[in-house]
Amino acid sequence: MSEEAAALQELTEQKYKYGFVSDIESEFAPKGLNEDVIRFISAKKNEPDWLLDYRLSAYRRWVNMEEPKWAKLHYPKIDFQDAYYYAAPKAKEGPHTLEDVDPELLRTYEKLGIPLHEQEILAGVEQRKVAVDAVFDSVSVVTTFKDELAKVGVIFCPISEAVKTHPELVKKYLGSVVPDTDNFYATLNAAVFSEGSFVYIPPGVRCPMELSTYFRINAAKSGQFERTLIIADAGSYVSYLEGCTAPQRDENQLHAAVVELVALDDAEIKYSTVQNWFPGDENGKGGIYNFVTKRADCRGKNSKVSWTQVETGSAITWKYPSCILRGENAVGEFYSIAIANNFQQADTGTKMIHLGKNTSSRIISKGISAGKAQNTYRGLVSIHQKADGARNFTQCDSLLIGDQCGAHTVPYIQSKNPKAILEHEATTSKISDDQLFYCLSRGIPTEEAVSLIVNGFCREVLQQLPMEFAVEAQKLVGLSLEGSVG
Amino acid sequence: MLEIKDLHVNVHGKEILKGLNLKVPPGEVHAIMGPNGAGKSTTSYTLAGRAGYEVTKGEIDFFGEDVTALAPEERAARGIFLAFQYPLEIPGVSTMNFLKTAMNSQAKLRGERELNAAEFLRAVRSAAKELNISEDMLKRPLNVGFSGGEKKRNETLQMALLKPKLAILDEMDSGLDIDALKLVAEGVNKLRAPDRSFLVITHYQRLLDYIVPDVIHILAGGKIVLSGDKSLALQLEQNGYDAVIAKAA
Predict the structure, then answer these.
(1) Is the ipTM of this complex over 0.85?
(2) How far is CA B75 from CA A438, B62, B69, B83, B95, in A?
(3) pLDDT value at position A419?
(4) Which pLDDT tens digit goes with each residue over B176-210?
(5) Residue A125, pLDDT above cutoff 70
(6) Bridge partners of A229?
(7) First CA to last CA across chain B, in angstroms?
(8) CB under 8 Å to B177, separation ≥6 — which residues?
(9) If interface means Cβ-Cβ distance under 8 Å, which residues of chain A face chain B?
């Protein structure tokens, strides 16, 4: 092997740097899924009866549902009985402070680069504050800056805590955007969800810092069923970011999340995702199956929700963050970068449902395929009868690296209002040998050249990310494609 | 400084260069002229190390080192620069970002310290000013929507910042009107230095009115058939390639 090829191989093999496993003693629910397991999860979390009933009713519905088959995804049948639906590090009872947390867990987050010490964050003067809820398998390890946020009335806590401390809010909004009847994976999530974040921003409050949740799957053979609920009350603003990683394992693991956002009058939610679940190895072995339902209800007039996602991980991605534009003048945005390398498959996009007058939406999707990967943009723009003055702009760009991958664009457009204005643009391009050689001839090595070109391709979307994460995301874009050009 | 010895190069299995010999001493400007299909572009791509340009025999020595097997970026780091006939567009990547990435990559390959943001900005601004390149152009995506003149000035800017030991100018005049050509040539002339050589590859004599060479080589059929001073260009202009090459043979 030439020196170059060897160096390239080394880079490829190193590329998933979050693939380590933490040695933590964990507690599991019995393997498989049945009503007893659901009762186990509910009991572990000391849930009120109404929530257990909610779970059981979802479960009873789920057993009769079928997996959706319409996506352009191929994978062996998932055995839902061959997994653990609850895994949690053994810990002391009671409220968590950083001192209570197992040092091994703290080391894990340190390795992942997630700041959990408030003081350390404060010490960095130039850096803006970011509050973190750290979710490890099925439980939240710690949530930072809770007290400071509480001073302005912002509630930021694990959802299992919110069930106890703010039951009226949870009861009112849980399942109000994504009902437990919505789809196979959302119904499964309603039955077994374990942890996620709860955010409430009171009227007129601009959340003083970025909120973020960091999801980590650690235990083998376990699924993670995140449930996140964010409510932005009238005239409020919040920017929220989620990140996700998992160890490198040979078998596939399931992540089936539900995220619900509610924006009331004049409220704005900016929701960013950097999804970096283990994507499987270069032979397509292992990796996370990521089946996610994310939806925002722009309930109030002049409300706005902006989804930005950087999807680089997972063996399979099935995800369509959507906006229901109910309020007059509501705005929905979807900015997406989806990268599929090696044997990854991504079927992702959005739904913009225009119900209210003068609602507008904007979709910018950048799909990058390399190796033998398949990358599909699937999106729906639906304009209802009463949505006078509705507008949509959609732009779907695909970039191919190599000649064994695929890019597909499947836009659905339904308009029942003759006055709606819809625009759709789509392009497909390749990184040309000429472009690469141009970079090389300037002294920029191949891997960096690919990263530079791809980052340029994604620029419009990267610009949407909060500054704190944009740099990280740029690096990730480059890393995900290492080894894609030989 | 540059010494090409008996270079044979295949492209797509066809032999294009058939025993090219060339010596360029430091500080000199050499022009390679030749008819279409003589192997001019093959020469510049081979020197820069482009994949697909397969050296079957001979070698390229640069400061005494055989660089024939080196990757393009390694050659760049050693000071070989190719100004492209048709510079490539890279959407979404600002000229500024591209320049920074290139300079830092070369510094890294040479084991030198990378410039910090302030040093870089200072260097770019002063070089851009010399070439009449606006701040706005530096912020635009590299070569996207640039005019022919802007693209060539951008190549010259890159050359000014990367400070090569050998600059190969491949058909620098193509796509330029006379005013743009003068501006680019002026930029190139400012970069002439005792420790920097130029290889000017051109079909037409016109460019050599503005970038005056020390030596002119005529390339035909994959080898140098005639070398001489700048008067050779005028002979070509008057008599055409066929007559001059026939006389040389």
Answers:
(1) yes
(2) 13, 9, 10, 14, 22
(3) 92
(4) 889 889 989 999 999 999 999 999 999 888 899 99
(5) no
(6) A198, A260
(7) 28
(8) B148, B149
(9) 4, 432-435, 437-446, 448, 452-453, 455-460
In whole angstroms, what is the distance from residue A196 CA to residue A140 CA?
A: 8
Phi, psi for residue A475 in degrees, rounded to 5: -65, -40
0.90 exceeded by the pTM?
A: no
Backbone angles phi, psi at A413, to 5 degrees: -130, 125
Res. A119 pLDDT band, cuts 50 70 90 = low
Q: Do residue A442 and residue B158 have CB atoms under 8 angstroms apart?
A: yes
Q: Do A435 and B88 touch (CB under 8 A)?
A: yes
In whole angstroms, give the CA distance from residue A462 to residue A475: 11
Element (H, E) at B218: strand B215-220
In the structure encoding, which two tokens stand for residue B1, read together?
């400084």
**Contact criterion met (CB < 8 Å) for B81 and A440:** no
**Largest Cα–Cα distance in chain A?**
67
Whats the size of chain B, residue-wise? 249
pLDDT in tens, A49-84: 999 999 999 999 999 999 999 999 999 999 999 989
